[in-house]
TrEMBL record:
Keywords: Plastid, Transit peptide
GO cellular component: plastid
Membership in a protein family: Belongs to the PAP/fibrillin family.
Subcellular location: Plastid
Domain Plastid lipid-associated protein/fibrillin conserved: 77-259
Source domain of life: Eukaryota
Organism: Prunus dulcis (Almond)
PANTHER family tied to this protein: PLASTID-LIPID-ASSOCIATED PROTEIN 4, CHLOROPLASTIC-RELATED
Name of the molecule in the record: PREDICTED: fibrillin
A Pfam cross-reference name: PAP_fibrillin
Length: 271
């Protein structure tokens, strides 16, 4: 969960499609008939094939209208698409196919472009309370996942974050379910402090961490440094989107975090 609080130059010239090169010189050609040399001469559209770069006026108008509709999507509509894209990927913690990841990041950028709180650190009251992670680009893959037992007998529960604005503190809680002869639940709790770095960024300092109960600490003891290294929030976090129910951030390590408002108190003793 980390810092949840926290890619051939196009020719400038235009070419005349081959079919036009033998036209009589006195034949007028509409300016929009010309197509950049970087385009294929045959384009597929939802209306069929457009040979040699030509599109009739109706197709052009429809394309313009479609583009306008996409740009006019509301944050609520984009969030609905985002939640659909996040289905079945377990918050992205064990990796996401590159195409799916690109789709998610495109939706994130759309939301960021319509951020209703451009100066979130000046509106910290909107950030206070409990949040639940729904997506992160932080991943636990390969040998890391094996060493932590996350393939066989340990599963990840909720990732929660409780922000105390008045104290400038954040508590991250990662829950675990351990399967086996003695089934039990536990949690890694990471406490951090934060301070304003700009109108949209906070600097985060790691304070301390604990694992409870002791049985879970015994499971992770050998690889505790690895576990903490994955979830240590220290660094900076840029809040790129904030409304009443969703928060998006980007950290100094290039990670993206998407969180939703939660009614659960991450500091409750029960797991």
């Amino acid at each position: 969960m980390g810092t949840m609080l926290a890619q051939p130059p196009i020719p400038a010239f235009h070419a005349i499609p081959p079919v036009l090169r033998n036209r009589p010189t006195n034949m007028a050609v509409a300016p929009h008939s010309f197509l950049s040399a970087t385009h294929q001469w045959t384009q597929s559209t939802r209306f069929g094939q457009c040979p040699f770069g030509f599109r009739n006026a109706y197709t052009v108008r429809v394309a313009e209208q479609s583009s306008s509709l996409i740009g006019d999507e509301t944050p609520t509509q984009i969030k609905t698409e985002l939640y659909q894209a996040l289905e079945g990927i377990n918050r992205g913690i064990f990796g996401v196919p590159s195409a799916k990841k690109a789709d998610i990041e495109a939706l994130v950028k759309q939301l960021e472009s319509q951020n209703p709180t451009p100066d979130p650190i000046l509106n910290l009251e909107k950030m206070g309370g409990c949040w639940k992670l729904v997506y992160s680009t932080i991943t636990i893959l390969g040998s890391k996942r094996t060493k932590l037992g996350l393939r066989d007998f340990i599963s990840l529960g909720d990732f929660l974050q409780n922000i105390n604005v008045a104290e400038g503190q954040a508590v991250n809680v990662i829950k675990f379910d351990v399967r086996g002869l003695n089934l039990f639940n536990g949690r890694l709790t990471i406490e951090a402090s934060f301070k304003q770095a700009s109108k949209s960024r906070v600097d985060i300092k790691y304070d301390n961490s604990t694992i409870t109960p002791v049985q879970l600490m015994n499971v992770f003891r050998k690889n505790y440094h690895l576990l903490l290294g994955i979830f240590n929030p220290e660094g900076w976090l840029e809040i790129t989107y904030l409304d009443e129910t969703m928060r998006i951030g980007r950290d100094d390590k290039g990670n993206i975090f998407i969180l939703e408002r939660s009614n659960e108190n991450s500091l409750q003793a029960s797991s």
